[in-house]
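User: Hello, can you help with two protein structures?

Assistant: Certainly.
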Amino acid sequence: MGNTQEKPPGGGGGGVRPDQASAGSRTRNQGAGSLKNPPVQRDSEKGVANGTRREKSPAGGQMELSSSAVDMSYLDAPAGALPPHLGRLKNEGNHLFKHGQFGDALDKYTRAIDGCAEAGIDSPEDLCILYSNRAACYLKDGNSADCIQDCTKALELQPYSLKPLLRRAMAYESLERYRKAYVDYKTVLQIDTGVQAAHDSIHRITKLLIEQDGPEWREKLPDIPVVPLSIQQQHREKPISVEQARARAARAAQEEARRRETRFTALKQEGNEMVKQGHFSDALEKYSECLAIKPKECAVYTNRAICFLKLHRFEEAKQDCDSVLELEPSNKKAFYRRALAHKGLQDYLSASTDLQEVLQLDPNVHEAEQELEVVTELLRRSLMDTPRV
């Protein structure tokens, strides 16, 4: 590949997992003929005797594990129109793919595809899924050419299927066939605007195409098909799996967190600028909005305490410093600003205690030394002015 290549996320396969729906018929030997089935082990080689699997114990002996300990129920999961023996092959392929055994999964999908042809099964939806799942294996193994071929076959069976389009786009991108990758990613986004991988890839490929083809790069693109509205509607109404629902919820949470973080940063910067300009009331409002987003952000509490001090709202300044010291018991700024709040409230003894705490944490805080002298004098005078009982 050229030096300007930017590989698609996830090493060519990303997080696009095999479909969990059913699959159907059609033979295909290309790209799979070179894969040999793993050698069959005899029961004695696997430590199986009379339906019981033997494994070595930590002590060096053998312990018996009942064969029922291994959960194989996934093999009998629903598999659409496929007969049981082909459904089991497809489900086993899904299981192997999930556990990173892409070569073994590819073999299962190939056997299921061949089995459909032999049984004369004609189910476009099921076959589309099998070809798409095998394409995912090819993509994971870096075999982009066979991935493209399987995805194209899947799309012939079920036009505008989302996963084959996305996988083919990734395969095109890995081969630096950026124009075709761009077209497929754009088609994906017509079907589902929420596919973040497609958005990211479009942004990345656009920059590469501008570098490669110049300002007229769009004119050199193949035609982007218009996805029928019926297909878009069908996709929106299609029930989603629990896994997809979790993925969408996670993406939504990440987006919300990113949005809140951006808002928080902007508000804090605005508050800081207003403090520099002496607009303490306005800055106080900005910091309060920040704390509504992140109620445990100590720096914002100490910043807001400055505003309260400047506005002679000493009790509120003290409360903000108290909040910080509950979260960070050794926060010097909170002790110092609380000391100023105590001073404003004429509680000179508490102010003196907080300033001494600052100097104990850091003897080099000269402002605290100077303020301690002032507060000590104020405390002395207040004691002298207090009438004796």
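That covers the first. Now for the second protein you mentioned:
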Amino acid sequence: CIGSPHSILVDNFGRRFTSESELRDQEQHYGFYQEMLQFDPATLSFPRAPVWLIFDHALMLNGPLATLGEGSTVSGLTTWSEDNLEAVRKGWILTGETITELAQSIARHPDNASRLSAELLQKSITHFNRAAQSGFDEQFDRDPSTLEPIAQAPFYAMPVSIDVPHMGAGLKTDRNKQVLRWDNTPIEGLYAAGETAPVSQFVHDRGGHLSECLVFGRHVGRIAAALPKRGRQ
């Protein structure tokens, strides 16, 4: 539902920060993730953890906001109704008859901890609605086909966090891919290559980790072949 008409994303302070439609663009969605992961060194916090999906009743009536038939909705870990009302009853979706009321609901949420400013949220929505009226998002160049205003009360907010479905860390290794202990000393005879000990991130669907398996697997194979042979214990 991110990037849908009648909706925007804001950080914990109420500021819009990116083009929401980038998430649907296969060439740009990793840049979208990186925007969500921004760290603020001044406050030692992640201002976009979580981000808030702000939307109006028009989107609420358009169908389920969660993807049914995939992920946790299939396994039964999460239940989500077609009309989204079950999520409202559970408190997963916050509501407000006005933007000010919605801002107050978000500020009371423990994940926001009173950081959100009603003034900043109203400003973000006002800018977006002007973009919807003109057909051009001068702030972030969002896809014009998704520019529909947030105008129909009641208004809603839902916290959104990143779910990374692949490994971006793993075992620490030296330049030869020999696995290291916590004190950075090598473990004799133990090597790792590929997604178990990656050197790159955010490239798994471009074959990045597969390339690591081929390149570093070959490298480690040569090292292993040159090691002294050991008899069975």
